[in-house]
Amino acid sequence: MNTTESSSSSSPTSKLDSPDSSNSSSPSLNRGFFAVLLRIVPPVLIMAVGIFGYLQLSVEPEETKKGNSKPRPIKTQVVELVSQNYPTRITSQGNVRPHDQITLNSEVAGRIVRISPNFEDGAFFSEGDVLAELDTADFEATLANAEAQVARTTSSYALEKAQSDQARQNWIRLSSNEDEQPDPLVLRIPQLKQAEANVKSANAQLDRAQRDLERTRIRAPFDGRVRQRSVGLGQAIRINSTLGTIFASDYAEVRLPISTEDLPLLALPENLGDPPVGVELSDSLNPGNGALWKAEIVRTEGALDASSLELFAIAKVDDPFGLHSGKPPLRIGQPVTASISGKILENVMPLPRIGVKRLDQVYLVDPDKMTLHKRTIVAIWADEDHVIIRDPDIPDGILMSTTKLGYAPEGGQVEILPDINPDALKKSAWLEAMGVSNKPKEKQN
């Protein structure tokens, strides 16, 4: 009996324990499954997204496919090239300088008692004008003494001349031999020569006193202008004291450098009598004022400049201050730009500078096929606007691209753009900046 009860009592206990053991193993299995998913799912998702993006980006758009099949034409503006005779003009720069500038000095010593209004900085004067005067009292006294000395010596000479003549008459009257010559001392010849020398010396002193008196009035040696005055009223000056600097105003000069490349294009005067070369001068300080001055190259310097190997030509400008012509004045030291007429280049082709790339590269357009071709040129001369070539392989009538091209394949098709009026372009840009439309308004129905 006891055995049966114990077995029966133990069986329910074992039934109750089995469910608890199954429940404890289930959570551990779930945690392991989620851990595996966390390790596998992210890489799989990343790979899936990458494959999807690659497939999307590797597909070429429809527009690109169409573009590859037919390239777009190159749009550019062009000019027609034609062989012609091209007149050259050489450009140079220089400064206006006086052709004759001197330092005015005093030839006598004295005190300045008067200065003319024409002897001020920048003032004009005429030849012979008295620019300054010195005190004349001492010079007038010296002149009076010289005049008195001339009178005394003249009187002494007259007396000696009379005595000499009387001695000669006495010798002739008392001499028994007509062929015998009297002694010079008898005829008072030495005394007469001394008296004559005294007269000449006195006259020389008189002339000098008159010149010194005249030199107290300092006169202008030519028509000109005062650059700088160096003395003042009441100042005592010595001989050769500097009074000021003056220069001639009848014409001025401009020293123009000419490069060795431009020399063959100019027939510069080398000798006296050679014809001058015409020059047109403009203001380098204010190019927009439109003032022009006519000038002529009248001579050249005898040697090339050692540093630049340029030859300097001297241009002459008449009436630089506009005293007679009424033109704006040219100031001394003013920089000017010179345009010189040169020789004519025959049978050449001028290329606009705007179309020349890298100094020797151009793009030509075949007018029949409308295709673009790159070409290397060799310039024979150039100015600010054109590069001049002489190439028989470039035919007349061919077109040249003048637009800056970022993409220019050889043989590419070209679409010619119309020329744009700069004034209209500026007006359109201004209207756009002001917020005003430049397009015509559509009519309302």
Gross morphology is elongated
- Quickly count the domains: 3
Structural class, from helix and strand content?
alpha+beta
CATH architecture of the largest domain: Beta Barrel
Task: Give the end-to-end Cα distance, rounded to a whole number of Å.
Answer: 119 Å
What would the CATH topology of the largest domain be? OB fold (Dihydrolipoamide Acetyltransferase, E2P)
Average pLDDT score: 83
* Element pattern in H and E: HHEEEEEEEHHEEEEEEEEEEEEEEEH
Characterize the structure shown:
There is one protein chain. This protein is α+β, with helices and mostly antiparallel strands and 445 residues long. 32% of the residues lie in helices and 29% in strands. The protein has helices at 2-57, 62-69, 137-174, 189-215, 422-433, and strands at residues 74-76, 78-80, 84-98, 101-105, 110-115, 124-125, 130-134, 217-219, 224-229, 236-237, 242-248, 251-258, 277-283, 292-300, 311-318, 335-352, 361-365, 372-376, 379-382, 386-389, 399-401, 414-416. The strands form five sheets. The protein has a six-stranded antiparallel beta barrel with strand order 3-12-15-14-13-16. Helix 3 (137-174) runs antiparallel to helix 4. The longest helix has 56 residues, at 2-57. It is elongated, with a radius of gyration of 54 Å. The protein starts with a helix and ends in a 12-residue tail after the last helix.
